[in-house]
Amino acid sequence: MSVTFHQQGHVGVITLDDPEAMNALTPEGLMALRRRLRECQDDDGCRVIVLTGAGDRAFCAGANLKKTFPPERGFARNLLIGRAAEAEDGGYTRLIDLSDLQIWKPVIAAVNGYCLGGGLELAMQCDIRLASTTASFALPEVKVASVPAIGGVQALLRAIPAAHAMKLALTGDRIGACDALNIGLVSDVFEPDALMDGALEIAERIARNGPLAVQMVKKLAVETAHLAPADYIAQSNIAWGLLRDSADRIEGRTAFGEKRTPHYTGN
User: Which whole number is the average pLDDT over 217-226?
Assistant: First the structure.
């Protein structure tokens, strides 16, 4: 799997690009994806990220079974070394976990076709999931006597009602885009040829907002949603205080008073 990138205005588009293999994950491809995500986070010109798959057959069909044979060394040894070093030995599961990258810019998954196993675990780490009418979703690991390795079960339980999450996780069955919309796994469904336009339109709406505020909202959502009310309110107040005197917040209030579109710079 290779990764391609282009930027449209303030929106960076990352594409998993191996359509013949249904954009299945490889250690090398995951390392490239991680590098590109980190570059987007560090680039002030990029405010929102769209993640999609090349072609119309798949967003990502999980691990590439031809290129993810078990590493030569034992699991315990590789668990204790760095992710990049483990990848050189053929390990790949920890690379799917993006939490260590601290990507605070919103990531939108534009899901076209199959979104299975590790592919769904990747999509569930995105902040917004959109689907084409041809999309389908599954965690099929139990069908091959395994389990989702990167928190897929727990992510499902956080994303959708528990009854639906457990049904998907325990049966390994695949559901279509309409069912995914009905249970809240995705927020919107588009015709296949309208998916990317829809994703870009939502991304551009987000990008017009204050960049620091958008990232702070995501940071609060990720880091404090599990806290008790007194604690998450305290953290929200700190975040508000950090932004209070920012140039963008002052510009937003000024533009509102002057009845004009604000011009945000990320400062």
Answer: 96
